Amino acid sequence: MIGVAALMLFDFGYFREQMCTVACPYGRLQSVLLDRQSLIIGYDAKRGEPRAKRKKKLPVVGERGACVDCNACVATCPTGIDIREGLQMECIGCAQCIDACDAVMDKLEQPRHLIGYTSRDLLAGLPRRVVRARTAIYPVLLVVALGLLVWGTASRDSTKIWVDRIQGATFVTLPDGTISSQLRLKLENEADGSRHYIVTLVGAPGATLRGATVFEVRARHAFELSLFVDGARTSFLRGKRTVTVRITDDHGVAQDVTATLFGPEGKS
Fold first, then answer.
1. The pTM is what?
2. Does residue 230 sit in the same domain as residue 176?
3. Residue at a domain's end among 147, 173, 202
């Protein structure tokens, strides 16, 4: 919390608009997604240019445009850009320049929306087209992404299991010459209730599992399990052996995890 608070103070107190112009990827993503028909905040240069100072109620005549060059739009912009120079990557779409310009137009008793929501084609005098390729493709991609999210959430396993790092000696030699290799598993129960689990070996002839093979894990909790797999020295090839461990819950759902055991140099 202290670190986050310090970063926020640094951002708002010193870094400020550089967060939008340097660090934030929004502008770069926006520049890829927009086309000439996309809704943007724009300045009506045909109405506003050429800029000239004038007083209240004076009509726009001759070479004078509606813009009085008060720079209110620039002063209020959080990223410090001049929207009158056209669409820019640094624009975050906050619309503060619209409010500032409308306030000035009200004082001068001139029509609003010299700066407003528009598109580049509308500013160029072209008609608006609502149905186009992007308005069809983007919703389809959004539906696909949401569908994948729902499918991934609904089909995820209620139990997550993985092999954990071994602590201490990887194996020991028992008095009868049998090799006992350490096996550590980590299990997370993501179900809403407690579950019981049973651990068994699959496809490991001559190997036996030693340790607590039946255990209970509370809902939304993790459990670390330390086991030992006992087997003959000759079952190891170049000091390694692969075994499959099956974890079955009390609903009959089984998951297999492959683990590599370490032991002495043995014959194949």
1. 0.57
2. yes
3. 147
